[in-house]
Amino acid sequence: MGHEDKLNRALDETLKPPPLRDDCFALPAGVDWTPVDTALDMLRDRLHCVVGTEQVPMQDALGRVLAAPVIAERPNPPEANSAVDGYGFAYDSLGDGDQVIPLVDGRSAAGVPFAAKVPPGHAIRILTGASLPDGVDTVILQEDVTLGRDKIAFRAGIRARANTRKAGEDVALGDTVLAPGRILTPADLALISAIGGHQVMAHTPLKVAILSTGDELRDPGQTAEPSDIYDANRPMLTALVRQFGHDPVDLGIQPDDRAQLRAAFDQAADSADLILTSGGASAGDEDHVSALLNEAGAMSEWRIALKPGRPLALGLWQNTPVFGLPGNPVAALVCTLIFGVPAMRCLSGAGWRVPQGFTLPAAFSKSKKPGRREYLRARICDGQAEVFASEGSGRISGLSWAEGLVELGEDAAEIQPGDPVHYIPFSSFL
């Protein structure tokens, strides 16, 4: 209508750049960011065990998640026995003062008990772990005895029932020794074996589909152009999943193509209980993970007030949980430890667990802005928490250098050397 020039000039006059933030992790004004604890509470409330159960022989049970309680089929120890090599007798048959007691013929050894009764006022040679013969309730150390041809002598002062173990003093018959949800350790297998167990009812392993997204990615060993990037996330996530006792399903590298990614999601939902992706979780032109979850109406959260790892997609694909991790390896690892590990525990039947950390003096200084929780790559040096020199999410060497994370809360903070900080070792996430 002849006014185009005036309209264009008006638009140009009102177009003004925003203030320079120079902080890619800054929380944009007017955007509702989800605190870390809120996102964790959401996961804990909505996730449940999704795997089945099976009988597992003891030799294959290490790292498996118990699906039923372990009940003692016999007590431990099964009989009263000696805790030391020495000589056994009835305490009430002792007289006053120093003792000289005749020995009966024979001995009691582990697996070869003495079948007869030891008469009052007599002693018998007994070895560690041997059942206490009838007539014996106390054992004296062989080092505290003078041995004669057919008798022993020892000083007064031994206590009644010294150096003996009662039947069932460790575990009584019918005791529940391990509860469902327990991830079995070598010590657990020893306990189960000691009370007569030879197999356990365990959950089937959780299957975790792992895929990376990005046209720029190449598998290690492939030819790569200078503009290409070798995929570090899939090897890292696959190893983490195995370390946590789950079964990884490798779906490779997916290009920045929505149709191919949709097909990969369909395959992952058919073959796994959980989907871990890296890259494409933000809101850019090629961020197809979050776009697909939004299209499906299955996006739960993706604006988490977290550094590193702000673009984190939490959603469902065909009722299969999806964790859309950031593409940067540092952010991908932190998000997996903070969100993925407890989620995998719930899905696998192990239940929710908060990683245990402890307070250490800082060996660093930092000025922290308010509004987000931050995790710094760290390790312990001379009793203090030392952090990696750079906070950049692309500094993969810091992952290898670190042995844990320093967790900084949402409040603003000025940290100086010696100030207390919360340190979480990587081992606490297992």
Describe the fold and architecture:
The protein has 430 residues and is of the alpha+beta class. The protein has four domains: 36-50 and 205-348, 3-Layer(aba) Sandwich (Molybdenum Cofactor Biosythetic Enzyme, Chain A); 53-76 and 176-203, Molybdopterin biosynthesis moea protein, domain 2, CATH 3.90.105; 81-165, Molybdopterin biosynthesis moea protein, domain 3 (Molybdopterin biosynthesis moeA protein, domain 3), CATH 2.170.190; 358-429, Beta-clip (Beta Barrel). Helices cover 21% and strands 29% of the residues. It is built from eight helices and 28 strands. It has helices spanning 4-14, 36-46, 186-194, 233-243, 258-271, 288-295, 329-348, 397-401; strands at residues 53-57, 70-71, 81-82, 86-89, 99-108, 123-126, 138-141, 146-147, 151-154, 164-165, 176-178, 199-203, 207-213, 217-218, 229-230, 247-254, 274-278, 299-303, 306-307, 311-317, 320-325, 358-361, 366-368, 373-381, 384-387, 404-408, 413-415, 420-425. The chain has a six-stranded mixed beta sheet with strand order 7-4-6-5-9-8, with no helix packed on it. Strands 16-13-17-21-20-18 form a six-stranded mixed beta sheet, sandwiched between helices. Strands 19, 22, 24, 25, 26 and 28 form a six-stranded mixed beta sheet that branches. A hairpin with a 2-residue loop joins strand 20 (311-317) and strand 21. Helix 2 (36-46) packs parallel to helix 7 (329-348). The termini are far apart.
